[in-house]
Amino acid sequence: MAETAAHLIDHVVPSLPVRQWVISFPKRLRYFLQRDPAARSAALRVVLRIIDQTLTCHSPEAGPTACLGAVAFIHPSVGASLNEHTHFLIFSDRWGLRGRRG
Fold it and tell me: Phi then psi for 89, rounded to 5 degrees?
């Protein structure tokens, strides 16, 4: 995991502020999302779209060219718990802190 994090910081994530979001879906959906990769991908795209819209709404000073990027890590459930969740590392120039990580 440390090697993956170092690679992301050194080669993938731009020099922008990074925020972590952790998403867990309701128990009734978890079974279906774990069994159907297409449904899980669609659900995660919806989450990212909502985060992007929320940041756009709350950061009008960022301007229309501000963009969002994300890396997702899916933590699978162990055993019968079905407690799968996803960590998003979201980087954006909407926070007005270009050039600083934080």
Answer: -100, 115
